[in-house]
Amino acid sequence: MPEDLRQLITRHQLRGIRAGALVILVTLHFALALPGLLSSLEEYRHPWVPVTAYGLLTVILGGSVLLGLDGRPWPRGWVPTALAGAFAASVAATTQVPASQYFVGASHWSFTLVGWFAVVLLGHRGPMAFGAFIGCHLAVNTAQLLTADVPSRPIAAGMAASALSACCFQMTIAAGAKLLLNSSTAIGEALQVQERVRTRIAVATQIQTDQRRRYAELNATVLPLLTGLANGSLDPRDDEVRRACALEAARLRRLFAESDCTFDPLVHEMRACIDVAERNGTTVQLAVRGDPLELPLPLRRALLDPVIAALAAARQTARVTVVRGENQVRVGVVVDALRDRLPEPAASGIRVRTVRAEDRLLVEAACRITARPARSDRPEPPWPPAWPSWSPGGRRSRT
């Protein structure tokens, strides 16, 4: 899983955990600790000590709210400074608590409150770090109690139950927060799996739609041909029928080649059509010049259609050339047969040139392009002459 995705999920989770813990801490700070402080001022020997401790905790709370709501890691040094300040404030406030009120009375508000400060500041570190802080805090408060007075067994049992219940509840919250943060990797992997599934479904749907559209286009020519061969209305020994079969076979091979992922789609599709001609006994030479270009699929089809039609009419030899220049793409073929009818270009901007001389036919499809990708580092093949020397003297026609 990418690191940035995991960090993003962890940040959102941490923001939610801190927001929930801060809501609890703010509520306890002002709705529980403050009334307990104000109602117990007469019980304290030096009231200014717990008041000062409460003020220090309020400052730490304000800093935690400002720094923790964005879900980012705490600033360097903030966690130890805030924990040390909260610990010192609790110890100082506890020195003024009567021995009978430790852990159970409203005057000992600092014990539970400091535990929630630890949840906010150490919840992302897990139960080990949180337990170490709470254990030290509980041990110091217990030592302060024993220094002030040793309670009786029933009172000590009540104090222990109150202290442990508060600590265990806070420990559970810290452990749950750590487990939630640890699940960010699993959540990210699940999201990636869902995204891959959605992408595959979208790609499969698009491919199926394209294939249905292309098959529908081929049905207009392939299906009548197959029907005629099946019912005997077309003679497979007829040259025109055989050329039509070769043409449709080349188109089908091009259709299959369009789904391949290749470095040079135009040449790859042209080679697929050449393979059909070679299987029919035609010797084909292919010359390619220029770097591959990103041409749209409809444009590649329009460039290849006239060339494929001429190639299907070849008897023994054919020569195919593919030229990619700075602003033009040309695909041409010279065959040893004449063909009067060639398919019209299916895209605008395609120029088809035909030259007929003796028993040879030259067909060239060209188009202009407006953009060109960066040249690759692969070497160009040697450039042979584009057309034979007889072509200027032949009879020409333009479509």
UniProtKB/TrEMBL annotation:
Q: Where is the composition biased (Low complexity)?
A: 388-399
Q: Which domain of life is it from?
A: Bacteria
User: For this UniProt entry, which segments traverse the membrane?
Assistant: 21-41, 47-69, 78-96, 159-181
| Keywords of the record | Membrane, Transmembrane, Transmembrane helix
| Span list, region Disordered | 373-399
What this protein is called in its record is Signal transduction histidine kinase
